[in-house]
Amino acid sequence: MEQMRELLKARIAQVKDPVQKILLQDVLADVFGELLTYTDSCFASLEEKIDGELQLPEPFFDIYTGVCTKDGLDAASRCLFPVLDMIKAGESDDGEFSDGLPDKEGLRPDGFLGTMFLACQYPDVQSCMLHPHQAEVETENGKIQTAVRLAYSRPYQQLLRWMYLQFGENQRQWHTVNCPFLYKMLDIIDVEGAVPADAVVVKIAIDLGGLTDFVSSDAVLVWNVSKELYNTRAKMGAADGISFYEHQVPLQDLESGYLAVLEKKEPFTAVFSKEGLCLRTQREAQGSLELLKFHRMDMRRDQTVLLHALQTNHRNAGQADRLAARQSRFVWTKGEVSRMLHAYEAFHDFELEDICPDMPGELPAIDLNPFIQTHSMLKSKRKMALILHPKDSSDIFQYEKMFFLLAELQLCTEELEWTGIIRE
Length: 424
Prior knowledge:
Elements: H1 2-13, H2 18-54, E1 64-69, E2 81-82, E3 112-118, H3 122-128, E4 133-139, E5 142-152, H4 154-169, E6 185-190, E7 201-206, E8 215-216, E9 219-223, E10 225-231, E11 234-239, E12 242-249, E13 257-261, E14 268-273, E15 276-281, E16 288-294, E17 311-312, H5 319-325, H6 334-341, E18 350-357, E19 382-390, H7 398-412, E20 416-422
Parallel strand pairs: 19-20
Antiparallel strand pairs: 1-9, 1-17, 2-9, 3-6, 3-8, 4-5, 4-7, 5-6, 10-16, 11-12, 12-15, 13-16, 14-15, 18-19
């Protein structure tokens, strides 16, 4: 095409009549302009057709997380919902929820006083969890002086763990949830037992030195996941000599992702299509069915007052990325790692300085993700260091974002053990 254009330009240059030259130049510009537009549209249609045939579900299961105050919640929100609203109010006779959800009250440790959000860098949060702090607890019966310790909020941690299990139950590919706020939600625990267990706590003032001003006691985590209940009827079916119950559930919102949640632990097969959900069980029929819905984000229709920008695990993976994911990697290069990381929005806050295999000296161990469990992690692996430079040194979530990126790299490699280094 480029040679043809040069040939036409050379012929136009030989034209002496200025009127004819102008007409030919206009024709040349219009023809090639339309031709390029047509070519781009053809490639876009081809890529869309390939994506449809591959049936990649990832965009429907993007999880967006944020943090806001209780007063900043939008009761009519169609996008963001409090994370802990996922937990039911009741429990079964054995003390556990039938659908596997953790018991919010049962996860509270002895001496639990409340949960707070500490808007500090990851190393500062870690240092605050190492030793007790003096606190003044105001109850309905007066003020009490005691010592408290801080620990990661167990209900939030267990709920994220439960979410990962649901992807496995539905045979859906999952990715690490990018939730940096999760590691700044801390339970406040009375280590001296000075506050009665039945006391109603009104306010807690903790002496954290220079970090006291960064404490928020009314913060809640929100995400774009909710539960919906569907009534369904089952009909008997059979295949390969095995009988099963088949449930057809029509889905009205085809732009959102869904996961099935069974009340009783039972293996099942969930097949999603444009027509809805087909769920097959072997033991018993389901009269009603709970679905986890991953809402499509539209902040124009949401009035939630966020304390920080939303974070997501969304990937902008093109055809080259999908093809590269199917290829065997014998050597990891900086360019390849950079290509993989650029697909994530969280990486836009960093610059990749280098990757370094077999770095001399001991590297600090980093908990990539407490929810990833694989037998291969027990093997001795070659270590690979990811060296990042944050574009904004004041970003209090830079470490957690790096952990998210490391976890995604770890899921792509069985032969390496990734660790991360941040250089200012």
